[in-house]
C-alpha cells in the first residue's frame, strides 16, 4: 500500500474562463414552454410500435406508407416519440426507423430531450457505429448538452470492457475533441459531470474515467472535484492502490482532499481490514484539519471501533466529539450500544438506551443485534416488543435479524412437524407459487445431502407482504404457540399485521 502523503493546503489557482456554446436556442425554449406536451393515445402508440417491430427490416417506402396511415389525421409529436422509445429500451432499430420517419415532416424538430432518449436506446443496444454517427449529428444540430456527454461516455466506456477496449476508450477521448471542433469547447464542468457519473457505485467505470481525465489533461486541467470523484470511485471498487496514487497526485498538485474523499478512504481501509491505516488517516485529519471533522467522520470511526470491540477507544473519540460541541445522533449511539452489548456489558448498553430521549430504529437495532450475537434471542424479542410499544415501527431488517437469531441462517429443523423448518418455509414457498425456489431447496437437502448455506428470509417475507400473508402468519403463529414458542409466534404475527396495514395504505392511496 502506498503511504499517503501529508495533507497540503490548497494553492491559489487562476480562474479559467471557458466559452460555452448555447445548446438550445431561445426560440426553442419559448416554443416548448408555450406548447406543453399533449396527451398521447396508448392504443395509437401500440399500433405504431407493432408496425415498427413487425416491419423493422422493411424498405423505407413500405414502412413509411404504413406509418402514414396511422398518422392520417395528425403528425407525430415529441411526447409520442418518447413514448415509443420507452417501449423499446434495448432495441435500436424500431426507434431509429421512427426517427427517420419523423424527418419526413418539415415541422418536426427534435430537441435535446428526444435526441438523448434515442441515444440512450441505441447505446443500450450496443450499436456503437450508429451511436457514434448520432453523437456527431447531435453536435452538428446543436442538440448536445451535459446529459449527451454522460450518455456518450458511459456507453463508450461500457463498450470498452469488451474485446475492442482500446478503440472504444480512444473514442471516449475523441468525443471531447469532436465536440470542441463543432464549437462546444472544452469544459471542466462537463468533464466533472462525466467523471462523477462514471465513478458512481451503480456504474463503476472508474478506470475508464481515469483514462479520459489523464488523456485530456493537456486541454482540460482537472481540479479537486475531479480527483475526489476518482478517489471515491477507486474506493468503491476496492482498489486502494490506485486510490492512493490519485490521492498523492491530487495533494502534489496543491489540492486539499475533500472531507467526503477522506471519509471514503477511511471507510475502505476499515472494510479491507486495514484498521491501522484508517486510524492513521483519522489522526492526520485531527492534527492538520480538525475543523473539517464533523459528525459523519466521528460516527464512521466509532462504528468501526465498536465492530472491532475497541470500546475504550470508541469512548475516547465519542468524548472528543462531545467536547467539540458536535451533537450526537442515534446512529452513533446505536453503534456504542452494539459494541457494549457484544462485549458482555449488557447493563451499560441498557443504560445508554434509557438515557436517550427519543430512541429510533438504529438504537434498537444495535441492542437487538448485540443480544442476538450473545445468543439471547428471547431477550432480543422482548426489546422488539418494547420498541413497538414506544411507537418505533420495525422494518424488514428487524424481522430478518430476529428470525435468524431464533432459527439460524440455515434454518432450524424441529422434531415437531408443526414447527419444522421445511413445513413453515418450504411449504410457504409452495403456497406462494414459488415452486422453483422450493425445488432448489429440496434438491440440495434431500437428493444431494447438502446443507443449504443460507435461507433467504428477505424473499420469503416479501412473498407474503400482502393480505394473504396475514392468514398464513396467523396460522403459523397459532401452531408455534401450541408448542410454546411464543417469541417466534409474536414475530410472525406482528409481521403479518404490519405488512397488511402497509397494503391497505397503498390501496387507499390508489383509490384517492
UniProtKB/TrEMBL annotation:
It holds the Pfam family PPR. Keywords: Repeat. Gene3D superfamilies: Tetratricopeptide repeat domain. The keyword Transmembrane helix does not apply. PPR repeats lie at residues 223-257, 294-328, 360-394. It comes from the Eukaryota. InterPro entries: PPR-containing_protein (IPR050667), PPR_rpt (IPR002885), TPR-like_helical_dom_sf (IPR011990). NCBIfam families: PPR. Belongs to the PPR family. P subfamily. This is Pentatricopeptide repeat-containing protein. The lineage of its organism: Eukaryota, Viridiplantae, Streptophyta, Embryophyta, Tracheophyta.
Amino acid at each position: 500500500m502506498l503511504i499517503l502523503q501529508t495533507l497540503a493546503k490548497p494553492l491559489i489557482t487562476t480562474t479559467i474562463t471557458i466559452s460555452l456554446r448555447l445548446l438550445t436556442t431561445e426560440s426553442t425554449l419559448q416554443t416548448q414552454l408555450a406548447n406543453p406536451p399533449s396527451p398521447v393515445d396508448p392504443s395509437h402508440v401500440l399500433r405504431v410500435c407493432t408496425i415498427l417491430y413487425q416491419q423493422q427490416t422493411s424498405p423505407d417506402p413500405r414502412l413509411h406508407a404504413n406509418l402514414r396511415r396511422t398518422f392520417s389525421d395528425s403528425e407525430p409529436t415529441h411526447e409520442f416519440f418518447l413514448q415509443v422509445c420507452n417501449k423499446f429500451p434495448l432495441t435500436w432499430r424500431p426507434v431509429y426507423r421512427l426517427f427517420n420517419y419523423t424527418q419526413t415532416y418539415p415541422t418536426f424538430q427534435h430537441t435535446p430531450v428526444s435526441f438523448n432518449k434515442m441515444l440512450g436506446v441505441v447505446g443500450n443496444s450496443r450499436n456503437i457505429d450508429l451511436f457514434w454517427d448520432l453523437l456527431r449529428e447531435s453536435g452538428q444540430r446543436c442538440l448536445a448538452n451535459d446529459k449527451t456527454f454522460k450518455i456518450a461516455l458511459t456507453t463508450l466506456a461500457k463498450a470498452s470492457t469488451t474485446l475492442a477496449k482500446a478503440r472504444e476508450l480512444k473514442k471516449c477521448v475523441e468525443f471531447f475533441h469532436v465536440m470542441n471542433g463543432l464549437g462546444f469547447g472544452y469544459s471542466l464542468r462537463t468533464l466533472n459531470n462525466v467523471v462523477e457519473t462514471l465513478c458512481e457505485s451503480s456504474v463503476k467505470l472508474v478506470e475508464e474515467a481515469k483514462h479520459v481525465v489523464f488523456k485530456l489533461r493537456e486541454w482540460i486541467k482537472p481540479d479537486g472535484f475531479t480527483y475526489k470523484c476518482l478517489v471515491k470511485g477507486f474506493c468503491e471498487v476496492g482498489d486502494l492502490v490506485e486510490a492512493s496514487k490519485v490521492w498523492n497526485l491530487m495533494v502534489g498538485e496543491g489540492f486539499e482532499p475533500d472531507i467526503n474523499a477522506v471519509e471514503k478512504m477511511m471507510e475502505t481501509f476499515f472494510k479491507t481490514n486495514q484498521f491501522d491505516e484508517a486510524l492513521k488517516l483519522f489522526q492526520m485529519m485531527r492534527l492538520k484539519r480538525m475543523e473539517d471533522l464533523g459528525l459523519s467522520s466521528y460516527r464512521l470511526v466509532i462504528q468501526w471501533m465498536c465492530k472491532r470491540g475497541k470500546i475504550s477507544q470508541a469512548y475516547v473519540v465519542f468524548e472528543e466529539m462531545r467536547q467539540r460541541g458536535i451533537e450526537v445522533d442515534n446512529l452513533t449511539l446505536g453503534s456504542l450500544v452494539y459494541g457494549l452489548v457484544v462485549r458482555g456489558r449488557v447493563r451499560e448498553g441498557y443504560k445508554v438506551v434509557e438515557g436517550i430521549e427519543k430512541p429510533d430504529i438504529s438504537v434498537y437495532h444495535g441492542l437487538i443485534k448485540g443480544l442476538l450475537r450473545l445468543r439471547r434471542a428471547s431477550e432480543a424479542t422482548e426489546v422488539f416488543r418494547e420498541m413497538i410499544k414506544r411507537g418505533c415501527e420495525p422494518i424488514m431488517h428487524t424481522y430478518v435479524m430476529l428470525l435468524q437469531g431464533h432459527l439460524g441462517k440455515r434454518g432450524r429443523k424441529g422434531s415437531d412437524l408443526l414447527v419444522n423448518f421445511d413445513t413453515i418455509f418450504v411449504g410457504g414457498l409452495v403456497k406462494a407459487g414459488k415452486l422453483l425456489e422450493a425445488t432448489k431447496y429440496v434438491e440440495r437437502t434431500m437428493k444431494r445431502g447438502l446443507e443449504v448455506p443460507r435461507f433467504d428470509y428477505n424473499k420469503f417475507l416479501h412473498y407474503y407482504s400482502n393480505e394473504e400473508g396475514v392468514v398464513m402468519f396467523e396460522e403459523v403463529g397459532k401452531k408455534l404457540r401450541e408448542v410454546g414458542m411464543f417469541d417466534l409466534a409474536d414475530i410472525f404475527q406482528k409481521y403479518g399485521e404490519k405488512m397488511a396495514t402497509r397494503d391497505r395504505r397503498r390501496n387507499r392511496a390508489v383509490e384517492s
